[in-house]
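Problem 12. The chain below contains 184 residues. Write out its predicted structure in token notation.
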Amino acid sequence: MSLVQDGDRMAFTCLIRRHETSVFRIIYRFFGKEDVANDLAQEVFLRVWRHCGKYVPAAKFTTWLYTVTANCCRSEAQSLWRRNIRLIGSFWTAGDAAAPEFPEPIAPTPSPEDALLQAEQSQLVLAAIRSLPNNQRLALVLKRYEELSYQEIAAILGCSVPAVDALLARAKASLLKKLAAHHK
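Solution.
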């Protein structure tokens, strides 16, 4: 990143290649749409380039990068809300849920009935995650899919570790409630 701060475009290209998959994955898990994830991932790296002078190597680079990513997700969610696009509670299309970059784990050679049941359950879980408030959804994505520590998530979201614990607890309770309602 220090080379990027000096204007080294090759270093920036290497930085993008190293982190583009994780940035895309976070955004994709947040919005569930490949085109949005591609566009926002580009926006994240544009912001990294424009604001590279603000990076201070006091923490891990990925913490700063994920903070930029989280801020882009929040901004886009607000923008979509302002444009009156209903995100909460919507189901992903079958094409989005089965994106080859993020296959859902399934048992080896399941029966057609089991495969259909698992696909339906995955749809319900993904819809429930998408219905969470933005901070809960971000905390859940960063913990569950990126396997970040509570400290890293707190730094990214700009809150305390107990606040992250509370966000994740509320997210889990909300998901359990929503999924239990579907099983009745």
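Discussion. The mean pLDDT is 81. Students who got a different answer should revisit the alignment rule from Section 12.3.
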